[in-house]
Amino acid sequence: MSQRADRPDVSILIVAYNSRAVIAACLRSIPASITRHSSEILLIDNGDGTTADLVAREFPDVLIVPSRGNVGFATGNNLLAGKARGRHLLLLNPDVVLKPAAVDRLLDATRAYPDAAAWGGVTLDEKDRPDLGNTVHVPSLREMASRTLGRSIAARGAQIALEEDTEVAALSGSFVMFARDAWDEVGGLDDRYFLYCEEVDLFYRLAKRGYSFWRIVEARGFHDIGHGGTWSTTRMLYRAAGNMQFVRTHWRRHAQLCAFVLVWLGAWQRLVAGRLLGRWKPRMKIVGESYRDMALKPNYWRYGYDPELGLQARLGN
Question: Is 4 a domain residue?
């Protein structure tokens, strides 16, 4: 970790949640990922505290911001940003292991695409292939309808756009860097989001101010997608609630109702397909069962993260 300037080129922000098993590999990958620019690393532990204990003991150069409990991804990153000194803010999941020069490539991209507000990397699966499941998109009724029919428009577009640097509508919050000035201009992430879609909301607000965003293909890192329980029923509830929070924040009332119906129909379609075909296609059964609570408990997620009606209130968190 280089400290060649009072104000580093980038502050690397890590929000951890019971990440003790993966955080060391993440932190050890950072020095080789940034050798030509200055940096600092900040971490907040939203979990049981064991991740922060390990980092404090084995990585003393990391600045640990005191935990406020499980405040969610958005608030966690905002707390880190409040302590960060960098000209850029890099959001990094604790289960991402960076490839050499990955962060340098993002910082190089700030000169190649100077009008942008954010530059994101490409995450890889266990076979070193681009992890298309980690691409994100701005919700739309057209996309929701296509997902209900089993042919996601956004997923097809992502398969085309990973061979060269590409201007995109949104980037995954697992490995993305923002210009500090742009972040401050819109107030960072929206604290009302607990998990999922918070970065999409930020990109949406930045785009309304005329900013662009680029995916940088040479900035890469391995993403341990199994760490967070990818197909758990609870995680899928949070995914749905995050999407509905975006919809309720930015869309008109009639569009909100259409979005709810489409997402609910999609959950039922996957649940039924998994139960009918899971005998022959085990993965389809796993995916289908992950949508069970989404299908059977629509009132848990349809109100997003509303303080009284939303998912957190329903779960008693």
Answer: no
Q: Are residues 101 and 40 in the same domain?
A: yes
| pLDDT band for position 132 (cuts 50, 70, 90) | low
Cα–Cα distance measured from residue 42 to residue 12, given in angstroms and rounded to the nearest whole number: 6
- Count structural domains, the chain: 2
Same-domain check for residues 147 and 252:
no
Residues 242 and 147 placed together within one structural domain of the fold: no
Instruction: Say yes or no: 138 and 57 in one domain.
Output: yes
Look up residue 300 and give its two tokens: 């848990």
- What φ, ψ does residue 110 adopt, rounded to 5°? -65, -25
Contacts of 25-32 spanning 24+ positions with Cβ under 8 A: 25/97, 26/92, 26/93, 26/94, 26/95, 26/96, 26/97, 26/98, 27/55, 27/59, 27/62, 29/97, 29/98, 29/99, 29/221, 30/1, 30/98, 30/103, 31/1, 32/98, 32/100, 32/101
| 131 and 219 housed in the same domain | yes
Boundary of a domain, candidates 187, 202, 223: 223
First to last CA, the chain: 37
The domain of 302 spans: 233-315
More confident site: 132 or 166: 166
Q: Which helix (H) or strand (E) holds 42?
A: strand 39-45
What count of other Cβ atoms lies within 10 Å of the Cβ of residue 188?
Answer: 21
**Residue where a domain terminates, one of 171, 192, 223:** 223
Q: What is the pTM of this model?
A: 0.92
Cα separation values, 229 from 38, 234, 276, 290, Å: 34, 9, 24, 10
**Mean pLDDT of all residues in the chain?**
91
